[in-house]
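Predict both folds.
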Amino acid sequence: MNTKITLLLSMVLIVSLSCNNSKKNAHENSKEHEHHWSYSGETSPEHWIEIEKNSNCDGKHQSPINIIHKNVDSVKIQEDLKIQYTPVTLISEVKNNGHSIQFDFEAGDSINYKNETYYLKQIHFHEPSEHKINGVIYPIEMHLVHVSKAGKVTVLGLLGEEGDDSQLFEFFESFLPIEEGAVKDIHQKIDLSSLFLEAKHYYSYGGSLTTPPCTEQVNWIVFKEPIILSVEEVLKLKNNMPINNYRNEQPLNERVVTYHF
């Protein structure tokens, strides 16, 4: 009888320990799953390479950078960049992905860079700016992400300066606020030709995505002349994004920045 009781107690103990270990492992797996990159604390840009093991976030050709004008190579604007935006391109949806406000596009607008066509996929925002010019940080930066059929990436970086209202930003912000994780269908036309990018001077260099996985071999085109939007428009975007959703400045590492004028 005593032997049976001892065996029963042993089985209860084993089951109990097994359940506790399962709960512990599940809790640890849950914590590991939640351990995702962000812009602050232990998952801020300084720690991205630690939590994004298979990323390029510790690469030698990373973005953003501080563009020092006196150190760039200058060339007259040739036919390297052709903007092919039309008034009838449709925004498909807007989302708050927890890192920025992002507008996704249907097929339509494109650019031609160095004789290759890149199609506009999405626009998102960083506050304050990620790129600097002569050490100047702007209130906001807009990234227009383009991808070729071969999967190559070219990003147009537009720095924002506070001033008069912008009809384009009024349109963007008409779909805000939007909660983190939420997606809104839009399917409305947008005319990005109002940005008049063809008239702006720009810097170009080889860099990376500014968010994990920090993929390199990205063509960067950063326009020298900022776009103008109101203080209220800057604040409205800011209130819908994480505070300071920018990556810190990355070393140039012998890369050449070219100024096109």
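Second protein follows, with its predicted structure tokens after the sequence.
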Amino acid sequence: MNKKYPNKDVAINVLKEAKRLNKGKWVKHSEYVALACKNISKCCNDMDSNKAYILGLLHDIGRRVGVVQERHTIEGFKYCSNRGWEDVAKICITHSYSIKDIRSVIGKLDVTKEDYNFIKKYIDFVVYDDYDLLIQLCDALAVPTGFCLMEQRLIDVTRRYGVNEYTIMRWDKLFEIKKYFERKMNCSICEVLPNVIENTFSYDKR
């Protein structure tokens, strides 16, 4: 086992355990995020597709504690840090912050003051690498029923959580990341994600 992230079998079992603790559409979403990460990273010469898959699979693992909003980031960080999975712990926080400002999220910051201060300081100083960017992107390309156009996912999230002063900035950043990976792959994102759905869907807050 890599000290900074578990092997694939362990990651799958961890997600299965989390599903028993908190059933919800977030589990299938995580599986599709993982698959998107794998497919995209396979086309990037400098990335490990197995690592990308595992990070994508566990990015929302903090939801194992129950129905929460932004609290899932710090819960995932704590859970993975306790197991020595530093790379996964990092992703648990960074996937929600394409904009490195704690105020940029539109979900409720249902965390303690101590955790709020920790997250704020963490994202202020952490350096994003391509895996952080990849999970941010794939989080916006996957829903519980499969892959979707990023525009669909962004609108869906906005319908559920509303907007704030960072909304357009966050959208622009994600499109920037999408272009970055398309340049790395030398092809369109849609070419490596099978059956991108183009119909409407419903995705609840779980």
